Amino acid sequence: MALVGRSAEIARIAAALEESRRGRGRALVLRGPPGIGKTALLEEGIGRADGFRVLRARCQETEAGLPFAALADLLRPVLDHLPAVPAPQQAALRAALALGPPAAPDRFAAYAAALSLLGVVATDSPVLVVVDDAQWLDAPSREALVFCARRIEDEPVAMLAASRELAPERVDVPGLTEVELGPLEPADAEALLARSTRDAPLAPTVAREVLGLAEGNPLALVELPAAMGADERAGRAPLPQPLRAGEAIAGAYRRRVETLPGPARLR
């Protein structure tokens, strides 16, 4: 389903992909609060990456202290190309990812190996690297990805990352292009609310209250009505008090977690 609004942001992602197709690597960091649409824009980018090899990592708060956890997830699908990487770099990356004998820590060599590996994979097709929830990257993976992002200008590689914007979760990436995601424009917010409530329309007074509470946050616009009963949506019963957008967003994430298998919920 097409995104509502975000035409400027989509255009920037599309331009980065096109540049990368032409051999000029580009990296974008999407920044914004929970529910603002960062993941949806990453998925939009993936949907536009025809002909790209897509490498993905979705970071986990529980793994933020595990060195190289995110980089291992990202590179696992292309580790069969590792023999084409220079031997010292290859050994450093194998050691970092616990794929070879332990070695004295050499982060620079491991980061250079990650860059070399992306370059090797990109000889067959352009590469799109996607990192969601980058605020939870473990430190070595973050350093490795920043190292790569600053050095892909001559490679057919695009990098898209999404991160929250507030300390202590903010991930500053000096020298990279950042796209700040603000609230939806009022007309777009109304359109998204109308689309999300098409099967269970809201009374006009209720719709106005939801629009005010959501403040242009796409996830809140979807989840606030979902938390209402039929009488509340129709304006026949008072809305739950207090009705907060933050609670609706938290509830949405909680329901997503509850659908996962038991072991996945513990990750």
List the topology elements.
Blueprint: H1 7-21, E1 26-31, H2 38-47, E2 53-58, H3 69-75, H4 87-96, H5 107-121, E3 127-132, H6 139-149, E4 157-163, E5 177-180, H7 186-196, H8 204-214, H9 218-226, H10 230-233, H11 245-258, H12 262-265
Parallel strand pairs: 1-4, 1-5, 2-3, 3-4
Helix pairs in contact: 3-6, 4-5, 5-6, 7-9, 8-9, 9-11
Describe this structure in words.
There is one protein chain. The protein is of the alpha/beta class and 267 residues long. Helix 5 (107-121) packs across helix 6 and helix 7 (186-196) packs parallel to helix 9. The protein folds into 2 domains: 7-180, Rossmann fold (3-Layer(aba) Sandwich), CATH 3.40.50; 186-258. The protein has helices spanning 7-21, 38-47, 69-75, 87-96, 107-121, 139-149, 186-196, 204-214, 218-226, 230-233, 245-258, 262-265; strands at 26-31, 53-58, 127-132, 157-163, 177-180. The protein is elongated. Helix content is 45%, strand content 11%.
List keywords for this structure.
267 residues; alpha/beta; Rossmann fold; 2 domains; 5-stranded parallel beta sheet; 12 helices
Task: Give the tally of β-strands.
Answer: 5
Write down the secondary-structure element order: HEHEHHHEHEEHHHHHH
Query: What is the top-level CATH class of the largest domain?
Result: Alpha Beta
Q: How many structural domains? A: 2
CATH superfamily label of the largest domain: P-loop containing nucleotide triphosphate hydrolases
- Strand adjacency order, main sheet: 2-3-4-1-5
Helix content: 40-55%
Strand content: 5-15%
Counting helices, strands and paired strands, the structural category is: alpha/beta
Radius of gyration over C-alpha positions, nearest whole angstrom: 21 Å
Q: Mean of residue pLDDT?
A: 88
Runs with pLDDT <50, length 5+?
251-260
Major sheet characteristics:
5 strands, parallel
> Under the CATH scheme, which architecture of the largest domain would be assigned?
3-Layer(aba) Sandwich
Number of helices: 12
**CATH fold naming of the largest domain:** Rossmann fold
CA-based shape = elongated
Give the terminus-to-terminus CA distance. Answer: 30 Å
